[in-house]
Specification:
Layout: H1 8-25, H2 27-42, E1 47-51, H3 56-62, E2 72-75, H4 79-82, H5 102-110, E3 117-121, H6 128-139, E4 143-148, H7 150-155, H8 166-169, E5 172-175, E6 183-186, E7 192-195, H9 197-218, H10 234-242
Parallel strand pairs: 1-2, 1-3, 3-4, 4-5
Antiparallel strand pairs: 6-7
Helix pairs in contact: 1-9, 2-9, 3-9, 5-6
InterPro entries: RpiR-like_SIS, SIS_dom, SIS_dom_sf, SIS_GmhA/DiaA_subfam
GO biological process, one term: carbohydrate derivative metabolic process
Organism: Streptomyces violarus
Length: 254
C-alpha cells in the first residue's frame, strides 16, 4: 500500500470494498442470525448483548437504541458495580476482562430467562470473559450469536483454559471481515492505522435487525421497535413498550 493510500479517501475506498464484501458474503449467516433473533422475540425472550473494549460500541448499536428492538439488554463489566454491589475500584483493573468468574457473575446479575438469546461481540474472540460468557450461556441452554473477526481469531492462540474461542462456541457466527489487529491501512515500515471492525460490525448488526424485523412482519407480527426519545411522544411510547419486559431489560444513563 502506498503512502498516498493512507488518507481519508484511501480509508473510504478500502473500507467500502470490505463492506461490500461483507454484505455479499454474510448473506446466509445474517439470515441464520435473524432467525435466532426473531425466534427469541417471538418467544417473549430478550436479546442480551455483551462485549468489552470497543466492542461495547456494537452492544450499544444493538441494545436500547432508536430504530432497534425493545427486548434487548446491554451487559457490561460495569454491571459488577451498578447492579452487583462491587466497589467501583474493581473497574480500575485493566486485566479484569481476563479474570475467571467475571462472566458467570454478570450472567447471574442479568438473571436471563431460558428463551433469551446471547449476542457476544469480540473482534479477537479470545479474551477470557468473552469465551466464558459464551460457554456459560450455552451451558444454561441459551443460543449464542457471535460477532467476531475470523481472520484475527484464526491467527492468534486461544487464551481461555478450555482452549476454545468465541467462534468455536456460537450457534451462528457473523464475520466482520476485519484484518488481524483490526487496522486497515498499512503504514510504511510496518504497522497499520484506522480500525475497521466497528464499521463492518454496525452493518452486520443492522442487517440482522432488519432481517429479523422482516421475519416478524411476514408472520403477521409487529416488531417491538424503539422510536427516538427526541421526537414528540417517543419517550412515553417507548416506556409503554418496555412494560412488557419490566425487570428484564436495563436502561441506565450512558
Amino acid at each position: 500500500m502506498s503512502v498516498e493510500s493512507v488518507s481519508a479517501q484511501g480509508f473510504a475506498r478500502e473500507s467500502l470494498a470490505v463492506l461490500q464484501q461483507v454484505i455479499e458474503s454474510a448473506r446466509d449467516d445474517v439470515a441464520a442470525a435473524a432467525d435466532l433473533v426473531a425466534e427469541c422475540v417471538r418467544a417473549d425472550g430478550v436479546v442480551h448483548a455483551f462485549g468489552t473494549g470497543h466492542s461495547q460500541a456494537l452492544v450499544l448499536e444493538l441494545a436500547g437504541r432508536a430504530g432497534g428492538l425493545v427486548p434487548t439488554n446491554r451487559l457490561s463489566i460495569a454491571d459488577l458495580v451498578l447492579h452487583g454491589g462491587e466497589d467501583p475500584a474493581v473497574l480500575d483493573d485493566p486485566l479484569l476482562e481476563r479474570r475467571a468468574g467475571v462472566a458467570a457473575r454478570l450472567y447471574d446479575l442479568a438473571a436471563p430467562n431460558p428463551q433469551d438469546l446471547f449476542v457476544v461481540i469480540s473482534n479477537s474472540g479470545v479474551n477470557n470473559v468473552i469465551v466464558e460468557m459464551a460457554l456459560h450461556a450455552k451451558e444454561h441452554g441459551h443460543r449464542v450469536l457471535a460477532l467476531t473477526s475470523l481472520s484475527h481469531t484464526r491467527a492468534v492462540p486461544a487464551a481461555h483454559p478450555s482452549g476454545r474461542k468465541l467462534a468455536d462456541i456460537a450457534d451462528v457466527v457473523l464475520d466482520n471481515a476485519a484484518p488481524r489487529g483490526d487496522s486497515l491501512l498499512e503504514l510504511p515500515g510496518g504497522g497499520s492505522v484506522c480500525a475497521l471492525s466497528t464499521l463492518t460490525g454496525v452493518m452486520l448488526v443492522q442487517m440482522t435487525v432488519a432481517e429479523a424485523a422482516g421475519r416478524l412482519l411476514a408472520a403477521g407480527e409487529r416488531p417491538p421497535v424503539y422510536v427516538s426519545a427526541n421526537v414528540p411522544g417517543g419517550f412515553e411510547g417507548n416506556l409503554e413498550l418496555e412494560k412488557k419486559y419490566a425487570g428484564r431489560i436495563r436502561r441506565t444513563a450512558s
